[in-house]
Amino acid sequence: MRAIIGLWRWRRNPLCRTTDLVEAWLALAALLLVLVAAPLAGAAVGVSVQGTLQKAVRDQRKDRHHVAAVVVRKLSRGPLAPDPETPSGRGAHSRVVADWTAPDGTPRHGTVIAGLKSPLPGDRFSIWTDRHGRIMGRPLDGATATAHSALAGFGAAVLSAGLLEGTRRLILWHMIRRRHARWDRAWAEAGPDWGKADTGS
Questions:
Q1: Is residue 70 part of a domain?
Q2: Does the N terminus or the C terminus of the chain have fewer Cβ atoms within 10 A?
Q3: What is the pLDDT of residues 40-81, one digit of tens each?
Q4: What gap in Å lies between CA 64 and CA 130, rounded to an integer?
Q5: Cα separations (Å) of 92 from 73, 95, 112, 113, 117?
Q6: pLDDT tens figures, 7-39
Q7: pTM score, two decimals?
């Protein structure tokens, strides 16, 4: 908003200084860069992150397999916190000893987290494994990757706009300091007698 207000310095005025025009041009340049460069930077970051995350989605879908596991017994510990990668935390999770078959045909046995409220021996549930049957996290889905990409792009646009505005304010602060220094020198040259009668002023 201050960048727009700074444009008033372009009006015709015999008292207009060169620094006033520089401030006006600086305000216009900052405004245009915020309106054009910041969104472009955000779009570039968003597209880049989207490409990287979608590749991760494809790789994870290729490397991770959904397999069925069978509860052998429930462990004595209480329910665990839900998987943060699941869309909802409403489902209960319990630690169980289970059997499953790896995608390569190897039988596996171990402690896993089951998405069951009260698991009983023989209950079936799904887990994610690699091709050797080792437990893996749920693969990233495309919608989540897109959401993360959009957030990264938005963050990059906001950061770019903030950097541009910060740079404008820093330049403006430097110009004001130089202007005040010139005023101080002018007052010092005028001397303490400025404005008194018969002092040549």
A1: yes
A2: N
A3: 999 999 999 999 999 999 998 888 998 999 999 888 765 444
A4: 5
A5: 16, 10, 14, 10, 5
A6: 555 556 666 677 777 887 888 888 899 999 999
A7: 0.63
Paired residues of 100 in beta bridges: 69, 108
Closest by CA position to 129, among listed 84, 99, 86:
99
75 and 116 assigned to the same domain: yes
Answer yes or no: is pLDDT of 172 > 80.
Answer: yes
Residue indicated by tokens 């080792």: 134
Distance, in Å, from the CA atom of 38 to the CA atom of 163, rounded to the nearest integer, reads: 9
Q: How many other C-beta atoms lie within 10 A of the C-beta of residue 118? A: 9
Q: How many domains does the chain have?
A: 2
3-state secondary structure (DSSP) of residue 182: helix
Residue type at 201 in one-letter notation = S
Whether 149 and 126 share a structural domain: no
With respect to residue 160, please indicate whether it lies within any of the assigned structural domains. yes
